Every structure is written in C-alpha cells, then in structure tokens.
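Recap from last week: sequence in, structure out.
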Amino acid sequence: MMRAMPDWVADAVFYQIFPDRFARSGQVHVPGPLEPWDAPPTQHGYKGGDLFGVVERLDHLEALGVTALYLTPIFQSASNHRYHTHDYFAVDPMLGGHAAFDALIEAAHARGMRVVLDAVLNHASRGFFPFHDVLENGDASPYAGWFHVERHPLAPYGPGRPGYACWRGIPALPKLNTENPEVCAFLRSVLTHWAERGIDGWRFDTPEEIVTPGFWESVREAVKAVDPGLYLVGEIWTDAADWLGGRFDGTMSYWLGGHTLVYASGGGFRFEITKHEYPLVREPVDAVAYGDHVEAVLARYTPEQMQSNLSLYGSHDTARALSMLGGDRDAMKLATMLLFTLPGAPCVYAGDEIGMEGLDDPGCRAGFVWDEARWDRELWETFRALIALRRAHVSTRRGRFRRLTREGDVFAFVMEHDDERILVAANATEAPASAPIHARGERLFGEGALEDGALRLPARGGAVWALDQSTTIAGDSP
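Predicted structure tokens:
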C-alpha cells in the first residue's frame, strides 16, 4: 500500500552542510590544534566547524532562501566526516555536544527551517562500544552476535585480514549484523530517540547494503510512529522506485542530477574526475537524449514520490559541480535553473552557491569561504533568484511536467498546477537555438524570447517564463 509522503518536502529548499567544514563559532573547546581553515582539506584533518557555527550563519541561509538543512553525521566519532560512529546517542563534543544541537534545532525551527540528520546503520566503527567489547572478550562478549565475525582474535589494525565483515573492506567500519533482532532494536531506538529530540527527518547512508527482509519497513514504522511528518530519504544513486512507499519517502536523485550536469556542460563535462558511479553516464548528452532521460526517470515514480525526491547534482561524495563542469559558469547556471524547476526538492551543497570548486574527497570538503570578496556574486545571485522563483511559483514545486521538444537543440518543458503554467527552456550548445513553440508570457529568469511563433535562446543559455492563462502552446506533447 502506498504511504503518504511528508507534505512539507515538496515546498522545501534543502541545503547540505558538512559540519566540520562549514563554520567555527569559537564557542567549542578543542583539545589540540586544528587544520588551518583555508588550507587545502585533508582526509584526516579537522577544521573545527561546529553546530554553534551553523546557528551563527543561519542569516546567510535565510538570505539564500533555504528552508531545510541536511547535515552529514553529527554523532561522536573519530573522523572529520563522522561516518565512523562511536556513540549514536551523543552529539560529538567537537561539534558542541548536546547544547549546540539543542540550539540549532531551536534556532532553525524559529526561522521555519527543518533539520534532517544523517543515519549510518549499515556499519559502525572500531570505537563503537559493542565492537570494543568483542575485541576484548571474543565469543564471550554479549555483543559477539552484533557483527559478522569470521575468526578470533580480531585484527582491526592488521596485519592481514581483520577477521570480520566491514564496509568496502575498510577495517575501521565493521558491518552491523542486522539479522540480529537486538541490533535492529538498537538502531530503531537511535532513530526514534532523535526524532523525539526534534529533528524533521533522516537521510540513510548506503541503505542498499542492508538486505535483511523487513528491516527498512520496521524502521519506517518506528520513526513514523513518533511523527508521520518526518522525512525519510535514502542514498540510492540509481533507480529507487522499489524503495519508496513502504520504506523511504524519497531518494537522493543523483540519477537525474548527474545527467543534468552532463547536459548543461554542452560537451565540456570532466568525466575523468568523477567516480565510476557518477554521473551514471559516460558520454556527452544532447537536448534530445537529456529529455528522454528526464522522462524515463519521471516515469519510474508517482508525481508525489518525485516531489519527495532530494534533487541534487553534487554533494560531499562527488567532485564539486563547478569543477565537474570545468569551471564553466554558464553551464552551472543552466544546471541550477533545471535543478530548481524540474520535479523534486532541490538540495544545494554548501559552497556551490558562491562558486567553490574542488575535486573528489577530500577536495570537495574544503572549509566554506566566508570572505565575501572571494564569492562568485553572479552565481550567488543566480541561486537566490532561482530559489525565490521556486518559492513564488507553486507549479515548480507541485506541478505536472510536460515535455515540449523532442528534436533540435532546445530542451523545453512546462510545469502546470491549476491555472499556473511555467515554461522552462535550455540551450546547452555554442550557438543560438530556437524551437517552434508559440506562447506568451512574462520572463522570470534568464535570457530568451517568445516571439514570431518561436522560442529563442542565446548560446549556452536558458530562461523561465510564467505563461499567460490564455496561451495555447503549439507543439504540446500529448
């Protein structure tokens, strides 16, 4: 049976924060020296961002138009990214502990912003107390069944094989045994605890790794019992239709976002700097192929599911979008226009809005640039304008998608909701382009014209129009 999605997600504009790299507050005691904020990031160094720092920068997010925060893990850990969980019930002291968490929830909610946390349920860390107990006591440990132990003694720091199953063969990440009911009960208790503490949703890390029958259904039931409006979104890079409804409300839509970047690049996408799984296409994409992909993605989800998908083209797990685009600002603006007008709840990775660049981990995880003199102001204003456009026009958030072009160099579509219709058109080529679309309306964003029975766009450009109610568009798809 289809489960209702949280209604607020369709109207949200998300912003992803990597806490150690977003902002230092000066309110948190750090036991030793930190990596310089502006120095190139390293895999193991800490820069000292904390949750009080997020609170202090909410003005920046409010000015941008953000309405929901997605934070990568905040629980106690021995890694700057905190995907190596030591204590699922403790906010990391270097992030400000529970006092900083409470301050963030209160300050964000006071501004009408939601807060979504990151849950790592497939694996813990060498520092997780139950795993430590197994290290000390072997088969005599009451937690021996919490992990996939192959032999004793375990060798978490080598030499040789560690003696237990771990994520991607990394000994620091022992895989939890979700076939054990005690483990499942523990993980559900973690999720419900923080739901009761006031969060608005969970993003689930690597959910495809957990194949225990009924696990994700039981997670959903437990969390939704606390608050049916909590948002549950899974990190699934491809087709996630089978995961929605009974398990998650939405998926991280890299499947669409990756193709969007490749299309917007006009052939300049830097495939050589991307992971093998991203952007799930390994050659240039033109307007026709991109339109076909958009339709194929939308066909896999109900409109409600698509509205609940987290729409993004980059994150802490990819090279920076602007770097994948080879520094092409026009391509970045085009991709962002599509991000904010196609179905799905858009998510901005902190720093994309000011033009930050960087290669894959650790390059994509640099300290946020707070010196405004170093910002790309044109990109900043582009993001602000598109977020304002989305928030002002319900059809971009809850509308029905209709593709208008199936040949040529223009990708054009309409989003419709009740009497409102928004026309969006993109041209990723190096030459002006047109499409035989007869329409009238007010241009809301970008450069282009509706005249003489045609839609015209400059090279490497796009535009958005609010259509007159009396307009009948010649060339509408059936």
